[in-house]
Amino acid sequence: LAALERQVFDFLGYQWAPILANFLHIIIVILGLFGTIQYRPRYIVVYAIWTAVWVTWNIFIICFYLEVGGLSKDSELLTFNISRHQSWWSENGPGCVRKEASMSGIKGLDNHSYISVIGCALEYRYIEVMHSSFQILIALVGFVYACYVVSVFTEEEDSFDFIGGFDPFPLYHVNEKPTNLLFKQTYL
């Protein structure tokens, strides 16, 4: 549900890189749930590997919005340089007031307006950082759970006796021939 919520807000902000990452995350989570329900450890291992990638992606998002290392939150990196859109939270955060100023005097920008945002209770970059931090927390819990489920499934597979089932004493007894009969020649 948290990934779906994040997907909605990334769609509202036209942030194409996070939209693709969230979509892939939703697909892998469904695959992991299917693997858990259908007792398929390989699907759960794929989910566990994906959680490591997902944590890395969210760490990148945190570094992006906090402008760590040469990253800038004002760059068009998350929109694939297609548009100048930013996070939806930049204009619609808690307590934010949007003020639009018409730019009709400039040729070619008749339908565009300058938007200024004031009075935000919390900057949008901190909201994005909280979203990513929450995703990391959920991913770590999911990783631990996936490892536990895979270990339980593989332990169950190793303990099953395919001939006698789970019974320590089978209902039938196989009479084995003595080894000396195997080496006797048969005469016609």
Automatic annotation (TrEMBL):
Assigned GO CC terms: plasma membrane
Pfam family, one: NKAIN
GO BP, sorted A to Z: regulation of sodium ion transport
Domain of life: Eukaryota
Entry keyword annotation includes Membrane: yes
Keywords: Cell membrane, Membrane, Transmembrane, Transmembrane helix
Entry's transmembrane regions: 16-37, 44-68, 134-153
Membrane topology listed for this record: Multi-pass membrane protein
Cell compartment(s), UniProt: Cell membrane
The family this protein is said to belong to: Belongs to the NKAIN family.
Protein name, entry field: Sodium/potassium-transporting ATPase subunit beta-1-interacting protein
Organism: Prunella himalayana
